[in-house]
Write a structure and sequence with these properties.
The protein is mainly α. Helices cover 70% and strands 0% of the residues. It has a domain at 85-237. The protein is globular, with a radius of gyration of 20 Å.
Length: 237
């Protein structure tokens, strides 16, 4: 049985990973810039025309490519990990820590500086949302109502704060970051418990009847239409 012929998308994907891997040593000195991209393309031996397809906006697309590549690597790792013995909050903590651990700290630092620029803040927000979406999907989230959005919004905020803490963490094995991640998730769990308590309160339930009716109409993006959410994500089945 012969392998299926490779498509143009396959060639672009292969070139993208090769260039991203070759870029990391240069990012330390030159950041996520067009200069870094040019050197990485040369080091990886990738055709310049193919690199333009992979990174049409230059250095910023190189940085985004690295971020999304790590999300993909995390999704593959979580898919094969045995997390059945962990509480759900511990699964989330594990996923956040693994996402940080597989990243190059200096590359992330340089990316944070880039996405702090007004021109690229929307790209940065989409990237973080994509990470949150990756984690929820990998952990088996099946929500389709407004909870789909609130879960990703909350996790985006948690992941962002954890990543910033991690960038300044000098403890062995990032133990301080691990503690920080656990504290942030505990905060979220307390908030979820508060929401559950409010829902059980007859007076609160009556007051929220109208807003909840409206929120119940909200649905996660489907597979057939592009989304206007950060990252242009679509609901996966």
């Amino acid at each position: 049985m012969t392998d299926a012929p490779r498509t143009g998308e396959d060639h672009v994907a292969q070139a993208k990973r090769a260039v991203i891997d070759a870029a990391l040593p240069h990012v330390v000195f030159d950041g996520w810039t067009d200069r870094t991209l040019a050197r990485a393309v040369e080091d990886a031996g990738v055709d310049r025309g193919l690199s333009l397809l992979a990174f049409p906006r230059g250095g910023v697309d190189l940085a985004l490519g690295y971020h999304y590549q790590l999300d993909g690597d995390l999704a593959n790792e979580l898919a094969s990990a045995d997390l059945a013995g962990l509480r759900f909050r511990d699964r989330v903590a594990h996923a956040i820590m693994r996402r940080l651990e597989i990243a190059d700290r200096e590359a992330v630092r340089r990316g944070a500086a880039l996405f702090a620029l007004p021109l690229y803040t929307a790209d940065g927000a989409r990237a973080v949302w994509h990470t949150a979406d990756t984690i929820w999907n990998a952990l088996g989230d099946t929500s389709t109502d407004y909870n789909w959005y609130t879960k990703r919004t909350t996790l985006s905020a948690v992941y962002s704060s954890c990543a910033l803490f991690w960038l300044g963490d000098t403890t062995t094995g990032a133990s301080a970051t691990r503690d920080f991640v656990n504290r942030r998730i505990d905060d979220v769990m307390r908030f979820e418990e508060l929401k559950a308590t409010i829902r059980k309160n007859p007076l609160a339930a009556a007051l929220m009847k109208g807003p909840n009716r409206l929120l119940d109409r909200v649905r996660a993006p489907d597979d057939t239409a592009p989304s206007d959410l950060p990252g242009s994500l679509r609901r996966r089945g």
